[in-house]
Amino acid sequence: MVFFLVLYGLLTFALAFLAQNSVTLAAQDGARKVLQWQAGTSSLTARANAGRDAALDISRWISSMSAAPVQVAVCGSSGALSSSAGGTCSGQPLAADQIEVTVSYAYGANPLIPSVPLLRTVLMPASSVLSARATVHLGNTLGTGG
C-alpha cells in the first residue's frame, strides 16, 4: 500500500509538472505567433487569433486527457482581442504596443489522473490553477500591421 501511495504521489506530481510546463510553453508560443505576420491581412485580430490557436495547439493534450478546456486569452491594452473557453486577461496594465497571452487550466478541479480522496487536498487542492502569462511588444508595427 505504501508503494502504491508513493508511486501515485510521484505520478501526480509528474503530470502536474508536465501540465505546468505545457501551459507555460503554450503562452510563450502564442505570444511568438502574435509577432508573426499573418499572410493576407494586416489585422491585429488575425494575429491574436493565430496566437490563441498556437497556444491551444500546444496545450491540446491536456484538454484531451482531462476533457476539461484550457483557457486562453490574447489581450491588448484595450482588453481581450481573442479568447477561448472563457480565458481572461491578467488585468495588468499593458503598453499600447504590448500584447499578452494568458493560458490557464484548473488542474485541481480537473486532475489528469483520478484522485485518491485522502490525498487530493494534500497533492492538489480543488482550487489549484496552473497558469502562465507571456507578453510581447509589437513596436511601431501595431498600426501598420507588420
State the end-to-end CA separation: 60 Å
What percentage of residues falls in helices of 4 or more residues?
40-55%
The average pLDDT score comes to: 85
Tell me, what's the shape?
elongated
Give the DSSP E fraction (strand runs of 2 or more residues).
15-25%
How many beta-strand elements? 4
What class do helices, strands and sheet pairing give?
Answer: alpha+beta
CA gyration radius, whole angstroms: 18 Å
Strand arrangement, major sheet:
2-1-3-4
Biggest β-sheet strands, sense, barrel = 4 strands, antiparallel
Helix segment tally: 4
Q: Tally the structural domains.
A: 1
Low-confidence stretches: none
In N-to-C order, the SSE pattern is: HHHEEEHE
Summarize, please.
This protein is an alpha+beta fold. The chain contains four helices and four strands.
Characterization of the model:
This protein has helices at 2-35, 44-58, 60-66, 117-123; strands spanning 71-76, 79-84, 98-105, 130-137. The chain has 146 residues and is α+β, with helices and mostly antiparallel strands. The protein has one domain. Helix 1 runs antiparallel to helix 2. It starts with a helix and ends in a 9-residue tail after the last strand.
